[in-house]
Amino acid sequence: MPLDDIAQEFVNRVLPNLKEKYHPVEVWLWGSHVYGHPHEYSDLDVIVVSEDFRGERFIDRQVRLVNELDLFYDDVIGVVDPICYTPEEFEKKKNRVCVIQEALKKGVRVL
Prior knowledge:
Elements: H1 5-22, E1 26-30, H2 32-35, E2 44-49, H3 58-68, E3 80-85, H4 87-94, H5 99-106, E4 108-109
Parallel strand pairs: 2-3
Antiparallel strand pairs: 1-2, 1-4
Pfam families: NTP_transf_2 (PF01909)
Protein name: Polymerase nucleotidyl transferase domain-containing protein
Domain Polymerase nucleotidyl transferase: 12-93
């Protein structure tokens, strides 16, 4: 599935920094930018799976990632909405009805 310009910009510019700082084992993009029908206010939905999130509260992971990668609002990408899991959390949630199932079915794994 081809990525739109916003998703491709994330892969080209943000993913290298994400890999360096968080050592993810998986990164998924999903949502309207990947499905080909973003609107003016669409954010970029990202799932990041990393051991680096172990022992950290769920919401704190997202806040830290957004702050450290300067993603609160990017002039090109816009708003990035990351969901951050440890590998074990991701494995457990894959079999439940949740956003992970949609991301796995319709999204794109970029790492």
